[in-house]
Every structure is written in structure tokens, then in C-alpha cells.
Amino acid sequence: MVITIFSPKGGVGKTTLTLALAKVLSEKSRVCVLECDFSPGDFVSLLDLDKEKNIVNACLGDYKACIQRPQGEKFDVIVGGFPDMQENLKYADMEKLIKSLSNEYDYVLIDLQPQISEVTVAALLKADKVLFVMEDDISAVSRTVGMFEYLRLHGFLDAGRTCAVVNKVRGKKKYITAVDLGIPVIYHIPYLRKLNEYKDKKMLKHARNLKDALFGVKKEKSLWRRLVNGFKRVKQKN
Ligand SMILES: Nc1ncnc2c1ncn2[C@@H]1O[C@H](COP(=O)(O)OP(=O)(O)OP(=O)(O)O)[C@@H](O)[C@H]1O
Ligand SMILES: [Mg+2]
């Protein structure tokens, strides 16, 4: 299964969520993360990896030679490239790489850069699920709506396979509730004050819930939560 994680806005938490999801999924499955980011991406420095084993060499050469495993992890990655490298890749190159990886892994997660290009479009169209990451601020929400419309108009996105997660939620939701995105918002992750890496315990707990939400696993509410909801209903009736 190919899951592409995307946002038209930078800094919303795509990489953090992608790696946290990869860590959670790799507990039981074979996972490869493809960093489709030429800005350049973060994986090389974040995970201490070799920048030569990147997406461009994986597309144009032997992709197996470009697979790296971050220390202490059970998932593999292919790191992103640099800005001048992107034009070397065509839609078909990316399509082929995604296909090869999906034959070898249970999950291929693609951490996608915000800009649209041939490569990005392949990552959107070849995905079984596209997860939009957004923050509840006016710019992120309006850009997501605009981008969503653009992608749909050009046939670059299948709305039926797309959903959204709201990240860094602080207090009451404001903008996200004011618009109809036309796609389900499957999960909310709070702003985690002391977060400094994807492996943070709280982030991994949310990644587990996000994974369940992505695959439609309904969580049984705790006894305590059911009691509180029951009392609320009684109170409303009176
Ligand atoms: N739920 C959260 N609470 C607090 N901080 C968060 C949360 N999620 C992510 N962050 C922080 O936000 C910053 C940006 O996250 P990240 O690099 O994952 O975003 P990105 O969308 O991949 O950015 P870019 O577009 O630059 O690739 C990081 O410092 C990360 O630790
Ligand atoms: Mg990123």
C-alpha cells in the first residue's frame, strides 16, 4: 500500500508524521519511506544518512542500492534530493520506483514536498491513500482548499482516496470547522509543547491512533469516557 503525505504549506508536520507512522507500522510490517523532497529534504541530517543514496539515483539507477536503514529503526528509507536534481526526473521514473518499492514492502510512505511537479503528481496519483496534513490556521486551511481544488480540476487527485489530519491543534478549532474540505478529517493531533523528534512517546501514541483512523479501525471508547458521555446526555435531557 502506498500512502502519500502531503501539504501545500511547509512546516505543518509532514516529515514528523510520516516518520512516526513508519515507526509504528514497521512494528509488524515491512515499511519503506520515500522522501520526495528536493528542497532539500530533512532525512539526511535527521536520520544521519548518506545523501548520495537519494531518490534521483534510485529512479535512474539501481534503487536497491539507494535503500538505507536508519540506526535503531525497523523501516527503510530513500532520502530526498537537491533543488537542481528535480528536473532530471519524469513522471514515469517516479511511477516505476513506486511500483518497485510496493512490490517489496507492505507500506511505502511518501513524504511529499509542497510544490507540484511531474514527480509530485506521480506520488499523488500512484497512492492508495493521500493524507493531507494541515494546521488550523487561516493560511494553511485556505491553501489546502485552493490546492485541493487545483489538483482535482487537473485530475491529479482522487478525492475518494484522500483524507486529512489536523496537526498542532491548540485550544478550540477555528478555521477548519468553517470550511467544507470535501474530504474527511480523520484525526487531530494536539500541539505537543516539548516535541523534538518523531520518536517522542506522545507523537507515537498519536501516530498509532492516526494509523487506526487511516485504516478505519474504530476504537472502543474507554469505560470512563462512556460514563462521562452518559452523564452528559442525562444532563442535557433534564
Ligand atoms: N504536533 C506537534 N506539536 C508540536 N510541534 C510539532 C508537531 N508536529 C510537528 N511539530 C514540529 O513542527 C516542525 C515542522 O515539522 P516537520 O519538519 O515535520 O514539518 P514539514 O511539514 O515536514 O516541513 P517541511 O515543509 O519544511 O518539510 C518541527 O520542529 C516539528 O518538531
Ligand atoms: Mg518535511
UniProtKB/TrEMBL annotation:
Residues 2-138 form the AAA domain. One of its GO terms (molecular function) is ATP hydrolysis activity. This is ATPase involved in chromosome partitioning-like protein. The keyword ATP-binding applies. Pfam families: AAA_31. It comes from Thermoanaerobacter pseudethanolicus (strain ATCC 33223 / 39E) (Clostridium thermohydrosulfuricum). One of its GO terms (cellular component) is cytoplasmic side of plasma membrane. It comes from the Bacteria. Keywords: ATP-binding, Nucleotide-binding. One of its GO terms (biological process) is negative regulation of cell division. SUPFAM superfamilies: P-loop containing nucleoside triphosphate hydrolases.
